[in-house]
């Protein structure tokens, strides 16, 4: 169950207005959600819905895009460490750049569609 709720598709509080503890908890939720997207990206047809939910969460809570990139990089680093421990090649992780590209494309589309409504954010 997620600690941060949405009302009518909008985050009740912007990320920057959260306490540091709440920001950390929220970022951990985003990381968990993004991890699930990565794990199911090439195997689950329903991942598109997960991507839309993730980008909604990022957009409506006003998370900076560099924070999304940082989440991606942290997860890829964790996966790379695990692959090295198993003696396997990390090369497959290059394919997961597509995940980040798709997330960023969804966010760009949201910013394009909602410029006036959220331009004061």
What does this structure look like?
- The chain has 121 residues and is mainly α.
- The chain has a single domain (15-118), classed as KaiA/RbsU domain (Methyltransferase, Methionine Synthase (B12-binding Domains), Chain A, domain 1).
- It is 64% helix and 3% strand.
- The protein is built from 5 helices and 2 strands.
- It has a two-stranded antiparallel sheet with strand order 1-2.
- Strand 1 (6-7) and strand 2 form a beta hairpin.
- Helix 1 runs antiparallel to helix 2.
- The chain is globular.
- Residues 6-11 have low confidence and may be disordered.
What descriptive keywords fit this protein?
121 residues, mainly alpha, Methyltransferase, Methionine Synthase (B12-binding Domains), Chain A, domain 1, 5 helices, 2 strands, 64% helix
Major beta-sheet overview: 2 strands, antiparallel
Determine the N-to-C terminus distance.
27 Å
For the record, the CATH class is Mainly Alpha
Percentage of residues in helical conformation: 55-70%
Rg measurement, Å: 15 Å
CATH topology: Methyltransferase, Methionine Synthase (B12-binding Domains), Chain A, domain 1
E-strand count? 2
Number of helices: 5
SSE pattern: EEHHHHH
Whole-number count of domains: 1
Strand residue percentage: under 5%
- Strands of the widest sheet, in order across it, are 1-2
């Amino acid at each position: 169950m997620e600690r941060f709720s949405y009302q009518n598709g909008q985050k009740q509080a912007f990320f920057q207005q959260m306490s540091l503890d709440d920001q950390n908890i929220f970022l951990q939720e985003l990381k968990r959600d993004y991890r699930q997207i990565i794990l199911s990206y090439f195997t689950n047809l329903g991942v598109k819905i997960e991507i839309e939910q993730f980008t909604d969460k990022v957009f409506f809570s006003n998370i900076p895009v560099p924070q999304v990139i940082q989440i991606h990089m942290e997860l890829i680093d964790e996966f790379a460490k695990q692959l090295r421990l198993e003696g396997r090649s990390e090369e497959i992780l290059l394919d997961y750049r597509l995940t980040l590209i798709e997330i960023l494309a969804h966010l760009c589309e949201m910013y394009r569609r909602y410029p006036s409504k959220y331009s004061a954010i």
